[in-house]
Amino acid sequence: MTIDRVAAFQRERAALLSFCAELSQSQWRADSAAAGWRVQDVVAHLGASCRALFTPAAITLLTTRDIERANNIPVDSRRHWHWSQVLAEYERWSGRTLRAASLVARSPARALRTRLGELGSFTVGLVLPGALVFDHHTHLRHDIAPAIGAPAPGTDAERMSVVVEWMLAVLANQLKAAPRSCLRAPVCLELTGEGGGRWLVHPDGRISVAGDDCGPIASIRSEISSFPAWATKRVDWRVSDIATSGDRELLTTLLDLINVV
């Protein structure tokens, strides 16, 4: 399946705008599931991230060694804003980001590599807009909607494929940066549902598509919808819907290591 990251971002942006249009003033001010952030702070983060692409703030995101701290700085500077200002900034700059992503996708620049803080190196075409699809999906469905008791918006196979693509790219960089002895054998990761698939996670950081019989000594199976929750440590993998088989020590090592931010 060929995925269109720009179209995925366009639909994810539309989902967030539609969701935000229904929020009450009290819901905007409610605590989200992201520690220390209200609902409007989460949206402020998304808007500030889009805006940063067009300002010198982008340099901070590219070079930081603490991307979570870097994300907190623009949120803190917007805490006094009215929610309507937050939403207006998001709508304006996410629209510009969508247009920029469309241009990048059609140009040779998509193959250039760039760093994104301590997350490592990626192609520009993957970061823009793959990282934003992941960020939107995860914040909306795991930080905002459940915190205010609202139903999470639906998604589709293409959007979930982009989310997983980004998460596996971050995981690959994590493994490459980890000690070589950390993972001593391949592990099969199977995500079920729309956009899912099977991958082999190799000790050297490579993540390859697996066939019907990937033949590892350990495997992890999970619904794709819960992957962003446990793989970002929002939910402890031990109490998630994960099913494992094989070498318990090997599985625990990998599952404890995974922390996609």
Automatic annotation (TrEMBL):
A GO molecular function term, named singly, is: metal ion binding
Domain Mycothiol-dependent maleylpyruvate isomerase metal-binding: where? 10-99
For this UniProt record, the keywords arranged alphabetically read as follows: Isomerase, Pyruvate
Source domain of life is Bacteria
Q: Does the keyword Isomerase apply?
A: yes
Q: Which Pfam families match?
A: MDMPI_N
This one is known as: Mycothiol maleylpyruvate isomerase N-terminal domain protein
Q: Name the lineage.
A: Bacteria, Bacillati, Actinomycetota, Actinomycetes, Mycobacteriales
